[in-house]
Amino acid sequence: MLGAIAGDIIGSGYEVRPVKSKDFILFGPRSMFTDDTVLTVACAHAILERVNYGMAFRKFGRRYPHAGYGGTFFSWLFSDDPSPYNSWGNGAAMRVSPIGFAFNSVESVLEEAARSASVTHNHPEGIKGAQATALAVYLARTGSDKATIKSEIAGRFEYDLDRTLAVIRPGYQFDVSCQGSVPESIIAFLESTDYEDAVRNAVSLGGDSDTMACIAGSVAQAFYGELSPEITAKVRTRLPPELLDIVDRFNTVYNVTG
User: Fold this and answer.
1) Quick check: 129 and 137 in contact, CB under 8 A?
2) Which among 12, 42, 166, 218 is most buried, taking Cβ atoms within 10 Å?
3) For the chain, how many structural domains are there in total?
4) What is the CATH number of the domain that holds 131?
């Protein structure tokens, strides 16, 4: 799960000031955890405690109300009658990686990813983005090679994963939709050589950098394994103890490396 969180923190510094290069400082003065981290940890909490995803998202979202949520999600967070709002946004995908680590079959991963998305993002594209991300994590951590991951995700979800970053990068712009950012995030992983390279690939597209690096980073951790000590140390110093405790418990219970 630290792979997703590290991607969020690294990408956070470049969301407002996008870069179109892989040559950038990983951790700068603007590097901080955002809603991607809060809701990823909330997803892990829901799994650990066997509670409803919506309840967990609201619990942690309200504890960290200034983490940078989208306007509609923020309204849902504090609503007296929270209902799904048919969103196709990439918030469904950025928070889902714990499901790919915790569940042990394709069917259960897809079912749980849909359940986690549908409390808010019940649009078909929102559900699809969550399922694609969770399945990519599951396939990566269970030993599938990149060709298999690419084939499975492209075949099931009709994402065009044949494009290259070099082709995507020049014209790519900020896009918060699942359909406009999840495939690109997965391509960032597919073209990577290690965890850090996957995150650099995602940020270098110049889009929704924290969320795209979170998605690419979650798959990269599942595929490559433990993050470098330097990245791990910098991430841990930026998280409050409450969130770190859940990360560590989740990693122990589900034997997650990194």
Assistant:
1) no
2) 218
3) 1
4) 1.10.4080.10
